[in-house]
Design goal:
mainly alpha; 2 domains; 4 helices
């Protein structure tokens, strides 16, 4: 399972109890969150994000520099991006 799938599943597990339909699926993305639950839900999502970030650690400057320099030999930007995604966990903000 890719890192993106693991992250997605962890966050969906936090959100599933608030799915608006009876089956508990989030296929349409509709959530019903009671106002009193919002702070707790935010804390849970942030906890999951922090756990994932701590597990993978932060890349050092030298490691990033070496990855960028080795990627310059790639024939295309897409290959460079694919190489960076293989080496590092990159989270979208």
């Amino acid at each position: 399972m890719s890192a993106d799938k693991v992250i997605t599943e962890r966050i969906l597990n936090v959100l599933r109890p608030y799915a608006s339909n009876w089956s508990g699926t989030l296929s349409r993305g509709d959530l019903v969150i009671p106002q009193s639950e919002v702070p707790r839900l935010i804390r849970e999502v942030l906890t999951v994000a922090h756990e994932i970030a701590e597990r993978h650690g932060e890349a050092g400057d030298l490691e990033v520099f070496q990855a960028l320099m080795s990627g310059r030999a790639s024939p295309s930007i897409q290959d460079q991006v694919a190489d960076l995604k293989r080496r590092f966990l990159i989270l979208a903000r």
